Amino acid sequence: MRGVRGGIWLAALALALGATTACDADLQQDDDHPPQVDVVRAGLVERYADGATGAAVRAEGECFADHLLDAVSLEELVGAEVVDDKGQVSPAAPLLTVDVAGAWFDAFDACADYATTAARAITGVDPAAFKTCFDAAVPADAVRAGVIDTLTGRSDTDAARALGEAQATCAAA
Questions:
Q1: N or C, which end of the chain is more exposed by having fewer CB within 10 Å?
Q2: Residue 1 CB neighbours (<10 A)
Q3: Comparing C-alpha atoms, which of 112, 118, 44 is closest to residue 74?
């Protein structure tokens, strides 16, 4: 099986199906910091890029962060535990609500092609062959449903399973 390299967080997350974990916020502490848009934006760009340094990936990350912040308030991101009580993007990937997951995918989709991005995240895959295989296997609306299911921790749905199976099959092809 091919490995996932540092690349795009969303694609890697969907490849892992179910890799999200809920955070356990410390509600008793008194050192909370309100989130600042520029800090959260920078954190979202870093989360998207997942260590990749290429200009194209950074541009996609900036696009993603801008679209997400246009669709979801800072308060919603804090409530979803995307942003922690220090005002930073959380290092752990929280389970999202359906609304935030939908906005997350839509922000991603506005900036990048899912199959192309997933291919970049898998070591040793021919990106063109993966995209051709994946696009033939999964309709666009099913990609959205599968990613949202994954981001909300519902990796046992038909859509999430179909997404994972298509990714595994196309990565092995």
A1: N
A2: 7
A3: 44
Distances from the Cα of 169 to the Cα of 86, 108, 110, 138, 144, angstroms: 41, 23, 26, 12, 19
By CB atoms closer than 10 A (0-12, 13-18, 19+), residue 3 is exposed
HSE, CB side, 13 Å, CA atoms: give it for residue 42.
6
Domain spans, the chain: 9-18+29-172
Model confidence pLDDT, tens digit, residues 89-138: 998 889 999 999 999 999 999 999 999 999 988 888 999 999 999 999 99
Tokens describing residue 151: 């981001």
- This model's pTM is above 0.85: no
